[in-house]
Design goal:
single chain; 334 residues; alpha/beta; 6-stranded parallel beta sheet; globular
């Protein structure tokens, strides 16, 4: 088994990582950096709570470290894991900018340590459905790709995500753009940012409303929205091809289901209720979405660490997204 140390037991560690590590027979969740000792004991009685990263790295027999701490700490914690010679997974965004991200990748390569980024939204059901349609040629040549993460939260809270500035990896462009840009690059290849808007609507230290237009070398144009202040959300995806279009609504259900206590193995996990629409206005068809499957990240990681398969996410892909985020922030400092 792959013995795992998890850094952080907030939403990322508790909801997105620990349940999948505990459910996959290839992994053993051995130790967790957290002060929530009672909660960890109730959720994962076989895991040991440790007070800090040094104690985690001193825990005997670890093979893998998963970094699920706040973004400003990602580089520090990942570097410590790499220096200890342990395979490392970092939640996205894996660094607060391309320069520190590139240095971290080079550090892992020099040490010969497997390093990857948890881009879980590659396994959203709506994205899996869309990717299959594009690869099958059902939409023809995709001319415009529209993608949104929007919700209505008009007042900022005191969380680090709301108070941390872009210089430390805070704000909605880093938080959600790391997903939307990654998906766009995965579908349509390299791109440049030709227009962008990054705003702080609610006060505090973090941007909370952003829009970016990417022009891909393949010819597709991506329009990407990220907002915490959208009283009415647009469609999750609206994709216009030369032959057909695709529209879907609402977020993949896995985050809400996992946060509500549903666990991997439940047949309801990842199954969206609302179908997508595909075709044209004159000839529309409903299309059930493929179930989302975040567990696939860890299945692929196990195959990589145990059998030499490719890592589930090439970290250079995540670096390319950080480079675009840096460009977008630079455009909006003028």
């Amino acid at each position: 088994m792959i013995r795992v140390g998890l850094i952080g037991y907030g939403v990322a560690g508790r909801v997105f990582h620990a349940p999948f590590l505990a459910a996959d027979p290839a992994f053993e969740l051995a130790a967790v950096v957290t002060s929530q000792t009672d909660r960890l004991a109730a959720d994962h009685p076989g895991a040991v709570a440790v007070p800090d990263v040094d104690a985690l790295l001193a825990h005997p027999g670890l093979d893998l470290v998963v970094v699920a701490s706040p973004t400003p700490l990602h580089v520090e914690h990942a570097a410590a894991s790499i220096d200890a010679g342990l395979a490392t997974v970092v939640d996205k965004p894996f660094a607060p900018g391309a320069a520190s991200g590139r240095a971290l990748l080079e550090r892992a390569e020099a040490a010969g340590v497997p390093f990857t980024v948890f881009q879980n939204r590659r396994w959203d059901g709506d994205f899996l459905t869309l990717r299959r349609l594009i690869e099958d040629g059902a939409l023809g040549d995709v001319r415009r790709f529209e993608s949104r993460f929007e919700w209505w939260k008009p007042s900022a809270d005191e969380s680090w995500k709301s108070t941390t500035g872009a210089g430390e990896g805070g704000g909605i462009l880093f938080d959600l753009g790391a997903h939307l840009i990654d998906q766009a690059l995965l579908l349509f290849g390299p791109a440049r940012a030709v227009h962008s808007e990054v705003r702080n609507r609610r006060g505090g230290g973090a941007d909370d409303d952003a829009f970016a237009v990417l022009e891909h070398e393949s010819g597709t144009t991506s329009h990407l929205w990220m907002s915490a202040v959208a009283p009415i959300a647009g469609p999750r995806f609206r994709v216009l091809g030369s032959r057909s279009g695709f529209v879907s609504w609402g977020l993949d259900p896995q985050e809400g289901q996992l946060g509500g206590g549903m666990r991997p193995g439940d047949p309801r996990l990842g199954r969206a209720i609302a179908p997508a629409r595909v075709g044209t206005d004159a000839h529309p068809d409903e299309l059930p979405l493929v179930p989302g499957d975040y567990a696939e990240f860890y299945r692929r990681l196990a195959s990589s660490l145990q059998g030499g398969a490719a890592l589930p996410v090439d970290p250079r892909d995540s670096l390319a997204a950080l480079e675009l985020i840096d460009t977008i922030h630079t455009q909006n400092r003028k």
